[in-house]
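Q: Okay, next protein. This is TonB-dependent siderophore receptor from Marinobacter nauticus. I've checked the sequence twice, so it should be correct. Can you predict the 3D structure?
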Amino acid sequence: MSLNPEPRFRRKTLITAMMCATLPGLAAAQGSEPKALEALDVTASRGQVASEATESYISGASTTSMKMELSHREVPQAVTVITREQMDDFAQNDINDVLEGTTGVTVESVETDRTYYTSRGFDINNFQYDGVGMPAVYDNVQGELDTAFFDRVEVVRGANGLMTGSGSPAATVNFIRKRPTADTNASVAVTGGSWDKKRIVGDVSGAVSESGAVRGRVVAGYEDKGSYLDRYNNEKQMFYGVLEADLTDATLLTLGHAVQTSDTDSPLWGALPLFYSDGSATDFARSTSTASDWSYWDNTQHNSFVELRQELAGGWRATGTVFRLENESESELFYQYGTPDRQTGEGLKAYPSQYDLDVEQWVVDAYATGPFQLADRTHELVLGASWSRSETVDESRYGRGIGNPLPPLNEWDGNYPKPAFDNGVGGSDWTDRETSTYAAARWSLTDQLTAITGLRLTWLDNKGESYGATKESSYDAVKTPYAGLIYDINDDHSVYASYTEIFTPQTEVDINRDRLDPIDGVNYELGLKSEFQNDRVNTTIALFQTEQKNVAEAEG
């Protein structure tokens, strides 16, 4: 059994319609008497579109689709922004909570501590931090990623290859970090809940120099919780520190680091049996867990970045970022397999295993954006380049006693002797490198019609092995074009259309253990976007079609 999950395959073409609405403050809008609102002073760094302190579920702009600050109706794709206000109001303390409440996204918890996210029928593997990142290894998230560090989460559904390069046509999830504020702010949030849940998060921000040219922010938290599942317990610790400095009136330097640990006792590994040996459905107590009392799954994430932003003449801005992400995972897990007898409950067998995983990613990204004049109209341009490297090392060790018979689950209390994990070893050790250049333009064709065009060129190189399969491939100057049109019907409604291509290298192999050719395809989208209640309600209706070639299919 490998920590690398077996591939799950999707249909190649999906067509659907979707409608989403965000309804902040709707009750207030229905009152007959106008009310004076308390003045609110919101401070954010240059070039940031902060959502916190606005008391709104609507974000003024997003940057994920184009690295331009574009409003909801200016993006020719379906976009959802989950603001800080929404996360706080609904106690969305981890990314599972956030994405469960996001239109068009499905959260698939494989067990207690491993999660897949899907959109439009495909696994989401494009996760970014402030617009920078690489596809997730194994297309899943292990442990719980806390939201205490984030100002908002932006989700662009559909292929986003112009800004991400290779990856899934499902969606791009962009975590926008909190930034320091000029004024001093401090808060403490304490939460208690079922199954002995305890949570505390502190957040302090403000100037650290007398002039206010240097500002800092620290977010720290702790959470401990049990579960309705027998023996399960999860403990999280998180810390985020960020410092920004105005080097000149036009130059902003930002440095930050975040670390989070998520340690779980007695996690599930695999699901409960669905059927008895006679084919009838099982019916276990809700608290039933197959985990042993010694099993655990510990995850640690380190996330560091340095960003330099320079304001240029003519409204232009240049931004350079160096980003490092490391995910470390250690686990000793207990899987129960087999089909129990309906009368005796016997028939399950033991499968103890031990896993180590270390993924280190480096990304360097630099781009410039600004306006230019052509044919007596003002347009916008983005020019950029990026380099990234991801190193993955994992090892699977299997315990003695695989196949030993186990007592019925209704008598199982987790008491099983911890074995030596020396019954076979497998693993992976590979490196992915990617270099890209990209350009995008937003053309103001008329006062009502806007076009977006773009092109990304990507060079990829993969070397190494994974569980006996060679992972060596190289692709040069892969082209990912993008085109979109937005037509403003009036002040409240816009229609749009977009087209982009898809390129996704595969890890699957054929019968000769040779790596399959990359997936390529196209993504079409048509939609209508509207704003109501003085822009406090956004809606999107989208029709899309995704076509892919070379998609792996299971055989045998």
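A: Here is a summary of the prediction. Residues 84-89 form the longest helix (6 residues). Helices lie at 26-29, 84-89, 95-100, 161-164.
Q: Noted. On to the next one.
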